[in-house]
Amino acid sequence: MSSGRLPPPEPVIELSTTSPVTSLAFSPHRALGENEVTLYSGHQDGKIIKWNWVTRRPESSTLAHGESIIWLMCVAEKLVSQGRDGVVKFWSVTDPEWTVIGEIPCAALIFCNSSICIFNNLHLLSVPSDSVGQVTTHCLEQLLPESSHIVHLSTPIQLHHKDTKSHGMCMRIKSEADRVPTPYLFVAYESGTLTMWDLLKGEILTEISAHEESIMCMDCWAGMDTGTIKCITGSVDEQLKLWQVDDLKLTHKKTVKVLNPGMGSISVRADGKIIAVGGWDGRCRLFSLKSMKALAVLTFHRSSVQCAAFASNNNLATGSKDGYIAVWNIYNT
């Protein structure tokens, strides 16, 4: 007799690489149609790979950085990469050519990512600074598909916490400008502190002691109707925490405990329905953002899930220290 349980989900695509996967980013592919996407993967050896969906093999690649790739993002058909070598690079990728159209310095030999948001036709790039606990925001002319270089429009904005000695290094940053009156920046610190800043003024609005140990991963999302911002954080323990911005204050909404300690990545789907949480145990756990109810556990990887990314068609890609990338077609409506 059937138990009534659904079989565990399996990836629809499996991609093998020779170096641990440290970052993933999807880009819509206009030539293939709005529901088709391009996947880029960043690796510990400093390489970035552009993948071909049909052959399941690399379409092109480049040795982008002298150290591990920390962060990837696709903007206006450009690829932005950050390496532990202390450089953020803007790429124009026309197979097989990879052309750097701009570079911006950032802190080296750390693991904190950068973040980009668009506000009033500006691209605001926030990067970890060489000064411990400081973030620098660069105001750039809005990138377009035909852009051949980046244009700085003003002096960079410095966000410097007065208590960096006790807060330690920045661990994660995330800017948010969708459906909000002014752009905000969320900064997670080594001490477990979570802060929210007015990005344009460089002023701190609120902070809270979110975790007892370092915040290892974070993502944010602004509500489609209300613009209410929710923030999800994970640490080295079993606790996944949901925060909400109410009257410019961070308030704790819910804590969910997972089976094994250690979280390496968090990604919120664009529609705000699903959270993907990559664990040190090799599992990727899916939760409902609204209720924080556990939806599924994806078991494919043999080592820590270091990154996860949703595509515009709601496919989910997970990347692991084991060198594999898995693409999942689950809860995609």
Radius of gyration using CA atoms only: 19 Å
- Tell me about the largest β-sheet: 4 strands, antiparallel
Shape: globular
Order of helices and strands: EEEEEEEEEEEEEHEEEEEEEEEEEEEEE
Number of strands: 28
**How confident is the prediction overall: mean pLDDT?**
92
Strand order of the largest sheet: 1-28-27-26
Low-confidence stretches: 30-34
What is the percentage of strand-forming residues? over 45%
Helix content: under 10%
> How large is the count of helical segments?
1
Walk me through this protein's architecture.
This is Guanine nucleotide-binding protein subunit beta-like protein 1. WD repeats lie at residues 298-333. Keywords: Repeat, WD repeat. Pfam families: WD40. By secondary structure, the chain is mainly beta. A hairpin with a 5-residue loop joins strand 11 (122-128) and strand 12. It is globular and about 50 Å long. The longest helix has 4 residues, at 164-167. The chain is built from one helix and 28 strands. The protein has a four-stranded antiparallel beta sheet, with no helix packed on it. Strands 2-3-4-5 form a four-stranded antiparallel beta sheet, with no helix packed on it. A four-stranded antiparallel beta sheet has the order 6-7-8-9, with no helix packed on it. Mean pLDDT is 92; it is low at 30-34.
